[in-house]
Request: fold
Amino acid sequence: MTENQISNIIIGLGIEIHKALGPGLLESAYKECLLYKIIEEGLEVEKEKSMPLVYEDVKLSCGYRIDLLVENKVVIEVKCVSVLTDLHLAQTLTYMKLGNFKLGLLMNFKTVLLKDGIRRVVNDI
Reply:
């Protein structure tokens, strides 16, 4: 399955969750619901995947954790904030670069319509 196919499934699941729960819950609630739905969909998913920083051939644990990694291809960063900022984008790009992933989804559940809170992030590897 390609990154785009995976992301389309994830976006659909996110919209389904957002329609059921609405905006305003804690980020952790949306993350758990998304994890549950992705597993139910039959996709491989890792929650809070640790991403070490490699510096001078040494893996350093710096506390980087991907919210969800689907099929070892798509990074999902879940937010529940008033406005997505460049810092949120930088965080997602950092995870993608550290893991050499091509596609990320920055999903902000604190929007009236989830489609307005989704940002596709592409890493030009």
Notes: Helices lie at 3-21, 27-40, 86-99. Residues 3-21 form the longest helix (19 residues).
